[in-house]
Amino acid sequence: MKRLLPYLLSGGACFVLGALSTAADEPRSITVPMVRAAQELLGLHFTDAQLDSVRGELAEYRDNYAANRKVSLPNHVAPATVFNPVPAGWQPGPAAGNGKLPKTDKVKLPANRDELAFYSVRQLGELLRTRQISSEELTRFFLARLRRYDPKLLCVTSLTEELALQQARAADAEIGKGRYRGPLHGIPYGAKDLFSTKGYKTTWGSVPYKDQQLDEDAAVVARLREAGAVLCAKLTLGELAMGDVWYGGRTRTPWNLEKGSSGSSAGSASAVAAGLLPFAIGTETLGSIVSPSTACGVTGLRPSFGRVSRAGAMALSWTMDKAGPIARSAEDCALVFSALVGQDRRDPATLLVPADFRYAFNLDVKKLRVGYLKADFERTYPNKANDEATLAALRRLGVELVPLELPPLPANDITYLLTAEGAAAFDDLTRSGRDQLMVNQGRNAWPNIFRSSRFIPAVEYIQAQRYRTLLIEDMHRRLQGLDGYLAPSFSRNLVLTNLTGHPAVAVPNGFTKDGLPQTVTFMGALFEEGKLLALVKAYQDATDFDEKHPPLNF
Question: For the CA atoms of 441, 443, 447, 450, what is the dihedral angle to 10 degrees?
Fold first, then answer.
């Protein structure tokens, strides 16, 4: 590295993926020693004669990069290529379930209105449908909780109070006239602040964008509006979708205000866990629903890749970003997912996958064949006892558990797909130097990651995508005959399945000795969210971890 440093610092190797210098810099002539140093960086071994031959093409490439950089590429402009998670030869199975919601017990308005904070979406929907409470009253209740507890949790970037009250009054008027849209009609919610919302800031949790306003509604915001839901708040995310630190501080878990909520769907998980909202929308690229759902003790659904449109959402990785609900239970996640799923021409990934979703809660779980990552569950790790208890609970329900092994290919070796795409998505931020405004500036923070990712060769990026195809095909073979499987929430499964696009649900299943919540991950076959959520609901009906919550007032 010491031999390469002078070249890297001087820009001598910058032609590898395009110079990091400004357009005003005079390009240096490309010499054989420069190319020799660059190939050391990339692990290549061409002769000096061969390197001399490529100098002309490299200079031309550098000119091409300079020309391309004169074209404005806002974050919302996606690559022409679209990632497809569907394995070769995949065919949809027979439709699972009857498509109906299970019957619910009669719900009564509590004498102590504060108890509404931890009612489920389904329960609140029944109260609204039967007109025991108005959407406006419910919305004001949750707005008050957001105002009261946000100073402790730091989970809100913007309250959308004016919009929320308008939507709540509209819901009340429609419900009053018998125009009931469904179980989300009149229900308050929050959206991670990387989803654009007309009339409000969309900050991406980052200083360079904290005053940004985008004149559109993201697809998820629009679809929830059509379902009659009421947007009460834009919720925090770790800066540019990493961690739980944003320009306003660190979002906290309500279980322990000295601990972070994890991220990057930090505010979404924290607000739901604290009873500030019945549900929220998060995103995951590499753990951003699973991790905060664990830290906050809520149920988080990461859908199959392509099932929910990301139009109007900040892009971090076009081939890995996924949007999904965070709520109290699998049933609540299903209600929200049903409103979100579907094709959208603004997000071509949605056009490649099935557009339908059916509730499958009537499935007999005794007929399900479910895998579990035997080797992972047998190792020593912090949540081992709780996970073993989960497996035992499923066996008592009559679920057939079958040992399963993941593909041996080391998925961690291609996570630079994410960082390369992120570097492209925020290319202007990096080259303009505005990345210096970001809160986190450490070696493992975005500014440094984006800079280092400029040196990932295009050929290696494409090879990694081909390697990803092998993972997808191998996973498809291994899941044949299975209705899903279980995994520890933090194992290589998390990385691998974010690459293959399989759906996951982070499910609360216990606590640490310090009283912090833990989860286990239920995995589904590709596009089988209905069956997956039915299995989780059966587990949650047999246990009470999804009903645990922090104190009402903390």
Answer: -170
Give, for all 554 residues of the chain, the pLDDT tens digit: 333 333 222 333 333 444 434 444 567 899 999 999 999 999 999 999 999 999 999 999 999 999 999 999 999 999 999 999 999 989 888 888 999 999 999 999 999 999 999 999 999 999 999 999 999 999 999 999 999 999 999 999 999 999 999 999 999 999 999 999 999 999 999 999 999 999 999 999 999 999 999 999 999 999 999 999 999 999 999 999 999 999 999 999 999 999 999 999 999 999 999 999 999 999 999 999 999 999 999 999 999 999 999 999 999 999 999 999 999 999 999 999 999 999 999 999 999 999 999 999 999 999 999 999 999 999 999 999 999 999 999 999 999 999 999 999 899 999 999 999 999 999 999 999 999 999 999 999 999 999 999 999 999 999 999 999 999 999 999 999 999 999 999 999 999 999 999 999 999 999 999 999 999 999 999 999 999 999 999 999 999 999 999 998 88
Give the chain's length. 554
Q: Which residues contact 503 (CB under 8 A, 6 or more apart)?
A: 301, 302, 303, 304, 307, 523, 524, 526, 527, 528, 529, 532
Torsion from C-alpha of 405, 410, 411, 415, nearest 10 degrees = 160
Looking at the annotation, which residues are catalytic?
A: 192, 264, 288
Find residue 522's DSSP bridge partners.
486, 505
Element (H, E) at 164: helix 161-176
User: Token digits for 368?
Assistant: 């399900």
Whether the CB-CB separation of 237 and 193 falls below 8 Å is answered with yes
Q: What is the pTM of this model?
A: 0.94
Q: What HEC string does 352-390 produce?
A: HCCCCCCCCCCCCHHHCEEEEEHHHHHCCCCCHHHHHHH
* H-run or E-run covering 400: strand 400-404
- Beta-strand ranges (E) seen in 223-375 are 230-235, 245-246, 249-250, 252-253, 256-260, 280-284, 299-302, 322-327, 369-373
- Residue carrying structure tokens 């730091």: 154
CA distance 511 to 282: 23
Bond prior to 29 in cis (omega within 30° of 0): no
- Cβ neighbours of residue 483 closer than 8 Å, sequence gap 6 or more: 368, 369, 370, 525, 528, 531, 535
What phi, psi does 334 have (nearest 5°)?
-65, -40
